[in-house]
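Many introductory courses stop at the sequence. We go one step further.
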Amino acid sequence: MDKELSRGIAATAIHENLYDAESAALGNVLTVNEAARYLRVSPWTLRHWMSKHIIPYVKYNNGPVRLRRCDLDRFIARSLVKSRAGNQD
C-alpha cells in the first residue's frame, strides 16, 4: 500500500471516529418534534409545557430551541406516579 493511500485511510478513520463522537453527543440534544416523539406527546403539548417552564430547554441566540434528553428523563422520573401497596394492576 502506498503512503498516500495509507494516509487517506487513516484520515478517513479519524474523521469517522470524530463524527461518531459528535453524533453521540448531539443525540442527547433533541428538537421539539424529536422530544415530543420521545415523550409521546404532541409538539403543541411540549411547547405548552416549555412556555410554563415545566420542562427546561436551550435556545441558541434567538434561534433554534433544543431539549436535552437528560432533562426529559428527569421530567419522566418526576412525573412517575407510584402505585399503592396492595394494588396489583
